[in-house]
Amino acid sequence: MISAARPREPDQIWQLPQKQDVRMAASAGYDGTGVAAAPFLVLGPLEVSGELGAVYVAPGRQEIILGALVLELNRLVETTYLVDVIWAHDPPKTARAQVQICVSRLRKALADGGVDATIETRARGYILRAPEDATDVGNFRRLVTQAHALARDGLKAPAVDLFRSATGLWRGRCLAGVPSEVLAGTAAQLDESRLDAVETCMRLELELDRYKHLVGELQQLVANHPLRERLRGHLMVALYRSGRQAEALDIYHQGRVMLTEELGLDPGRELRDLAQAILTDDADQALAEPAEPHSLVATPLFEAAQKRGADPGLCVTPRQLPADIGDFVADDTTVSAVCDAVTEGQEKGQLKVVLMLGGPGVGKSTLARHVGHRLATEYFPDGQLYCELRGPGGQPVGPAQALERFLRALGVPGQAIPDALDERAEMYRSLLADRRILVLLDDAVSESQVMPLLPGTGSSGVLVTSRGQLTALPGTRRFDVEPLSPEQAVQLLGQIIGERRVEREPEAARALICLVGGLPLALRIIAARLAARPHRSLTSLWHRLQNEHRRLDELAYGELSVRASLSLSYDALAAADRRLLCLISLAEGTEMPSWLGAALLDDRTAHPADLLEPLIDMRLLDIAAMNEGGQFRCGMSQLVRTFAHERLQAEISAAERAGAVRRMVGGWMALVERAHKEIYGGAYTIVTGLAERWYPPEDHVQRCLRDPLGWLESEQTNLVNAVELAARSGLDELCWELATALVTLFEARGYPELWERTHQIALTAVQEAGNERGQAAVLGSLGTLHLYRGEPEAAGLYLSTALEIFERIGEPSGQALCLRDLARIERHHGDDDRALALYESAERYFARARDVIGRAYVLGEMAHITMRRADFVRTRSYLDEALGICLSAGFVRGQTLALRRLGQMLMYQQQYEAAERTLLEVLSMVWASGDLVGEGYVLHDLGRVNAHLHRVEQAVQYYSQSARIRERILDHSGAAAVRVDIVAILCGPVTSVG
Q1: In what order do the strands lie in the sheet with 622-626?
Q2: Is 258 within the bounds of a domain?
Q3: Does residue 773 sit within a domain?
Q4: Domain tally, the chain
Q5: Which residue, 112, 490, 498, 594, is most buried by CB atoms nearer than 10 A?
Q6: Positive or negative: CA dihedral 709, 711, 713, 717
Q7: 372-376, 729-733, 740-744: segment of lowest average pLDDT
Q8: Quick check: 350 and 424 in contact, CB under 8 A?
């Protein structure tokens, strides 16, 4: 029965607990301070912590399994149940294996994080073994049980404290964000038990006559849970006792209308009786106001403070915002959007939390303070509260400490401030109720740090800045703060050092901005140093910053320091994440794939992207791109890379660095090798070595192989960097293997400069290591490069040296490749007989090496010789065999080569229309595969066909396109040959087939 009746013994209720009561409460397990934070938190988003701090649990399956185990702490959880909670419908065949993998990773995460818990394996499932107080849900149940026991014994005030402690453990919906339909049902039951505890607590507080400070809290509860009649009844009682009879009846009528319209029901008997009692005011003392006045927040500590003459209800107008800066620069659209988001809550009566996220030094605090000053007078005239939540040394400021500062700023004397966190939060929310105050929480570390500092009503506004994600904060509007654009950065420099000084050296200004990535903190340091030294040029400072080893030393001035700002984020990471960040600095590309972190750590996880998430959350890595499979590519700013490389040298051993580099380059080698095999149909036309590979997850490999040549193109910078890194690290075998394998890309897409650059690096590496096989492979490939460039004499020197080494070590693949290219040189000199003999030798060695694609290429070249001799029967035989081999292997480029030769043969036979049809088919194939070299050759052939058909305009168009492509790929001799044909068709007879 909901009752508005006042308790019969008010004097006893408002006294501090007697010693006997306190002893009874202590015997029930209550110490007046709540409970220590448990390592496993599920009453809100899932969180785990150990001796080393927060423990990262990968979202998805790992979160679901851990949530299920925590809810059944020290009890067996069957594997079949875990499969159900992950896959409510149609689990895969590998479900049990995936559960085992997730449990294994969870064990490792708990052990690495120093969590006092183990996961034991049983025949039918698993047990999470930990102390009984290791979970917040267990502590909640224990506190609620103890609170009910105290209430039954008449100890209502201690019972209320226990209920408050219990409900204070909640940080949001139970297991918020954990994607499981099955667990959602269990979580909903726990959410319901929390509301039951809240209702009981509200009833006890009303019986203790603490009605005035309950009104705001009950209003919020009723708004959130409008169909819970017991909460509505409690609110009606609190309003009536506060002298707000009409509002109490209005609350009843609102509930009755809602029930009627939504459910077609009338309010329950208890609520109807309560409304009647309030309406008639005939319950004598049952609805009367207590005789004794009490403070706004009726707690024993408040009462003690009142007896000492303090006035805890005194409220002043705090003005805590740090000063705005005069040279503030930001995007006006962003500033306006943030301002609108902060004030939106006031209009709707709902608390809106505006979260401004960004990496270290990006200017989020400066932006937040600027917004605060813009809004202070008009929208938040009752004051502004400010707290920097990351204290000295980067240690988080506890919410209890922050609340003490806020309460003092609001006029609460120190002796009236409660000790318990939940009581401080209650007092804080009560003092902010119906007041328009802006709360700026700067550099927040976690949701648990922020939640107690949020006002209870929408009249106030909240701005939070953070380096982390803080995804569990309710009702948030998120803004990502980005570095300054080049134009904004120039504006900032001009405001500090003077526009004319920037205008005198615009290139140096842009170079400085680029060097620090538009980071406002770094730009302010640069500007401060330049302002302090008017004689120094921007160019001279840029030269000083070019020294990467001293860059962070240069980016410090007074209290400003990029290194110090980055250190705060770095020190907040778990040890494993700090190690990964250091190792990532070894990768020199501007973007890196998600598998790279796993290679650096030698972690065989199926989801390597999970390893990078903590670094992304702290904005030390940026997501540069995302593919259709959900895998992302990361970027690291130059300043973060410099900082991480410093820590790498100081904190990671040389042996560990060497192993990380070997695995990273081995990963690139494994992928390039797979791409080559996909393009050629196998490990053909290449010499392989003995370098160790590191294999990325197969799903990532399959994504690369969808377009292997396109993937090689997209990773070109990273792959060239990997060749150079291997050479610097003494990995000569990996260096030459990776360099020669990349010819697949360099030859097809026309990158002769990269071809030469990587091979000269590899040649030096293998020569210094005395690696004969590597020397021969690189020399032979350089010979092919010089042939590609039309330099047969230089090619011959390289190829002869390589062939000599290959013959000495007995390498048939290398011998075949060298003989093939030496035959091409003989053809260039016009000795077809000698060329044919060399091709026949090359074919035998390709056959010995079981290199069918190498054989097919040689057959195509032999066909070209017999075609020029008008031996079309042998030509057709060679081409048919070559085409059949390439079709069987799926080697598209080989097919285009064979078909192109067929088109040329048709030209020799003067079947020009048939030749044109064949060559147009080849052209469409090279377009589809992105084969620029092949495109240049086929366009040249099509020009010749059209010349024979006397289509001068079409021939010139084909010739011109061919010349442009061959110039683009630096094939200058080929381009010159095309121009000769252009002149010939415009001024003379048709040329012969080349």
Answers
A1: 591-593, 632-635, 622-626
A2: no
A3: no
A4: 6
A5: 594
A6: negative
A7: 372-376
A8: no
Last residue of a domain, one of 210, 244, 266: 210
Higher pLDDT: 665 or 13? It is: 665
For 933-967, give the DSSP string: HHHHHHHHHHHHHHHHTT-HHHHHHHHHHHHHHHH
Please give the structure tokens belonging to residue 40.
Answer: 């496993």
For 114, the token pair is 């120093």
The tokens of 676 are what? Answer: 């080559």
Please, what is the Cα angle at 272 between 270 and 273, to 5 degrees? Answer: 65
* Residue 296 CB contacts under 8 Å (≥ 6 apart), including other chains: 212, 213, 302, 312, 313, 430, 431
Q: Are 38 and 47 in contact (CB under 8 A)?
A: no
Q: Are 532 and 589 found together in one domain?
A: no
Confidence of residue 394 (pLDDT cuts 50, 70, 90): low
Q: Are residues 522 and 468 in the same domain?
A: no
Integer Cα distance of 576 and 580 in angstroms: 6
Q: Which residue, 210, 238, 260, sits at the end of a domain?
A: 210
List C-alpha distances in Å: 341 to 334, 348, 351, 358. 11, 12, 11, 18
Please give the full DSSP string across 96-157, using - where no structure is assigned: HHHHHHHHHHHHHHHHHTT-S-EEEE-SSEEEEE--GGGBHHHHHHHHHHHHHHHHHTT-HH
Check if the beta carbon of residue 598 is closer than 8 Å to that of residue 605.
yes
pTM for the structure as a whole: 0.57
Are residue 509 and residue 456 in the same domain, yes or no? no
Asked whether residue 474 falls in the same domain as residue 503, the answer is: no
- Token pair 């079309």 is found at 872
The b/e string for 934-972 (b: 16+ C-beta within 10 A; e otherwise) is: bbbbbbbbbbbbbbbeebeebbbebbebbbebbbebebe
Q: Is 688 part of any domain?
A: no
In the prediction, which pLDDT does 500 show?
Answer: 87
Do 887 and 935 belong to one domain? no
C-alpha separations of 308 from 303, 314, 413, 766, 844 in Å: 9, 15, 11, 86, 106
Residue 221 tokens read as: 């509860």
Same structural domain for residues 474 and 533? no
Model confidence at 786, pLDDT cuts 50, 70, 90, reads very high
Phi-psi sector, 478: left (phi>0), alpha (psi -120 to 50), beta: beta
Q: 976 Cβ partners below 8 Å, 6+ apart? A: none
Distances (CA, A) of 146 to 140, 631, 935: 10, 49, 82
The per-residue pLDDT for range 158-200, each reduced to its tens digit, is 899 999 999 999 998 999 988 888 888 788 888 888 998 999 9
- Cα–chain-centroid distance for residue 472? 17
Which neighbouring-strand residues pair with 625?
633
End-to-end CA distance of the chain: 103
Domain range for 930 is 919-994
